[in-house]
Design a protein that fits this description.
It is a single chain. Helices cover about 45% and strands about 15% of the residues. It is built from 5 helices and 6 strands, in the order E-H-E-E-H-E-H-E-E-H-H. It has helices at about 15-25, 55-65, 75-85, 100-115, 130-150, and strands at about 5, 25-30, 45-50, 70, 85-90, 95. Strands 3-2-1-4-5-6 form a 6-stranded mixed β-sheet, with helices on both faces. Strand 1, helix 1 (about 15-25) and strand 2 (about 25-30) form a beta-alpha-beta unit. It is globular. The two termini are about 15 Å apart.
Length: about 150
């Protein structure tokens, strides 16, 4: 079964995920450290895992399957999902790929080291309407591909 897992605490595209999931008739598993408001829909499940480093990531990585999609900005979680055969998509619409994930992890570690040394500052650019649109386009593309793989259309 194709499910959408959402690393939800800082996810800016939850409303879009709910709309797309409803259109496709998919289950959404929203995983967070604290309770979040979700649509009253039997296909949307909110899982509160509590606070702690990597708790939500661990919960998702232990349950995601090969025909599932994880929406996350967390590169290590994306890598864990890919290792289980799932797809991973960032909230700006970037699909993480097995071919590029190693380089992304290395870059992430390098930037963390540089930030710790005071060499680099700042964060990601502000989230835009174009980011939201790109996410919707990519999510639709990924879901269509998975449906074909599963023989569902």
């Amino acid at each position: 079964m194709l499910d959408l897992y959402v690393d939800a605490d800082a996810c800016p595209v939850k409303a879009e995920i709910y709309r797309v999931a409803q259109r496709y008739g998919l289950r959404v598993v929203v995983v967070s450290a604290t309770p979040l408001q979700t649509p009253r829909d039997g296909r949307v499940e909110c899982v509160v895992v509590g606070r702690g480093e990597g708790v939500a990531d661990d919960w998702i990585a232990e349950r995601i399957g090969a025909l599932d999609v994880c929406v996350t900005a967390d590169i290590p979680l994306a890598a864990r999902c890919l290792a289980r055969g799932a797809r991973a998509l960032g909230p700006r619409g970037k699909e993480f790929s097995p071919d590029a994930i190693g380089e992304l992890l290395a870059t992430r570690d390098l930037l963390a080291t540089l930030r710790g040394a005071g060499q680099v500052g700042g964060g990601p650019p502000p989230f835009t309407k174009a980011d939201r649109s790109e996410f919707l386009n990519q999510l639709d593309r990924v879901l269509q591909a998975l449906r074909r793989e599963a023989g569902r259309g």
